[in-house]
Amino acid sequence: MLKHGDSADKLSGAAPLFSALGDPVRLAIVARLCKDGPLPTIELKQCADGVSRQGVTKHLHVLEDVGLVDSDRIGRDRQWRLRAQQFSVVRDYLDWISTQWDERLERLRAFVEDDASGKACRMQFRETLNRPTQSETTRGRTQSIRHRLARRVAAAAA
Q1: Rg of the chain on CA atoms, in Å
Q2: Helix (H) or strand (E) holding 81
Q3: What's the pLDDT tens digit per position in 9-18?
Q4: 28, 47 in Cβ contact below 8 A?
Q5: How crowded is residue 29: how many other Cβ atoms within 10 Å of its Cβ?
Q6: 22: helix, coil or strand?
Q7: Euclidean distance between CA atoms 136 and 113, whole angstroms
Q8: What pLDDT, in 10s, does the model give residues 113-144?
């Protein structure tokens, strides 16, 4: 599990994994391998709609390069399987992010529920809701200018 003080170098190890999983075809391949276990390339092609066998092979090599899958040659084909230990890096990174958000939400909850500051926060929030937006203020000025201009034109015409 990653700790709060971990450096960006340690966290950057997860970036290639997320990049590889960011493609819908590769994500579908991983999902199929999770569901059905080790499969040959030709069967993985079925989960990648519209992608050729060569295309699926290229996607599998991207997943292999980041360590998410391994393969063994069986005859003329390859059998692909997931490497579960690499998914622990992804899980650790997501757990670290989740912990950070939990801590921040807890601090926000404590701030809002605190009687003195919570009351001030709620009052400030209500004032913000009742304050006109920039566009409303501009619209009001424009309508006021139009109204004054219309009165001057009417007075000049009379």
Answers
A1: 30
A2: strand 77-82
A3: 556 778 888 8
A4: yes
A5: 28
A6: coil
A7: 32
A8: 775 555 666 666 666 666 665 555 555 555 56
> What mean pLDDT do residues 90-108 have?
86
Tell me if 14 sits within 8 A of 89, measured CB to CB. yes
- Cα dihedral sign, 46-49-54-60: negative
Query: Do residues 64 and 30 make contact, with C-beta atoms less than 8 angstroms apart?
Result: no
What are 72's strand-pairing partners?
A: 79
What residue has token string 């391949």?
29
Q: Which domains does the chain have, with CATH numbers?
A: 8-86 (1.10.10.10), 114-157 (no CATH)
- For the stretch 10-15, contacts whose Cβ atoms lie closer than 8 Å and that sit 24 or more positions apart, written own/partner, are 11/93, 11/96, 13/89, 14/89, 14/90, 14/92, 14/93
Candidates 50, 52, 71, 49; CA nearest to 60 is 71
Residue 11 is predicted with a pLDDT of: 65
Whether the Cβ atoms of residue 64 and residue 71 lie closer than 8 Å to each other: yes
| Global pTM value | 0.60
Contacts of 66 (CB under 8 A, 6+ apart): 16, 17, 19, 20, 86
Structure-block tokens of residue 111: 């701030």
Beta bridge partners of 80: 39, 71
Half-sphere exposure of 14 (CA within 13 A, CB side): 18
